[in-house]
Design goal:
Elements (H helix, E strand, L loop, with lengths): L2 H14 L5 E4 L3 H4 L1 H9 L3 E4 L9 H13 L9 H17 L11 H19 L1
Parallel strand pairs: 1-2
Length: 128
């Protein structure tokens, strides 16, 4: 994974969604690069990095990739990288929009996210 790829994904996410308060990554060179850290700092995002070799620091994303591998990736034989990428994209859409999650009281992550955004907007309006 290189910085250009990471920046493309970051910029795409920031174009589509409100920026987060905290951005947590590992200590990979793409995340510690000047362009990446500057982009986040310019938005006022707090940068958080896991300790070296500490997969448990970001348990949610580790759990996501475990699910992706066990539920989808390991079950298929891909003929090309582009086929794999397309299937991972499809799984991400499924995981966030159509898959019920026990830890979210059997709700879908995107629904929980949207509820949170709406609640925060109501709180902001009430404080004005």
């Amino acid at each position: 994974m290189d910085t250009q790829l990471v920046m493309g994904v970051l910029n795409d996410a920031l174009d589509k969604h409100p920026h987060p308060e905290i951005f947590n990554t590992d200590q990979g060179a793409q995340y510690t690069s000047e362009v990446h850290t500057k982009r986040l700092k310019d938005l006022g995002v707090t940068i958080s990095m896991d300790g070296k070799g500490r997969a448990t620091d970001n348990i949610c994303i580790e759990r996501f990739w475990r699910s992706a591998k066990c539920e989808r990736i390991y079950l298929n034989e891909y003929q090309s990288i582009s086929e794999l990428v397309a299937d991972v994209d499809d799984y991400i859409e499924f995981y966030n929009h159509r898959r019920f999650h026990e830890t979210l009281e059997y709700k879908k992550p995107m629904n929980v996210y949207q509820e949170s955004v709406e609640l925060n907007q109501k709180k902001k309006k009430a404080s004005i």
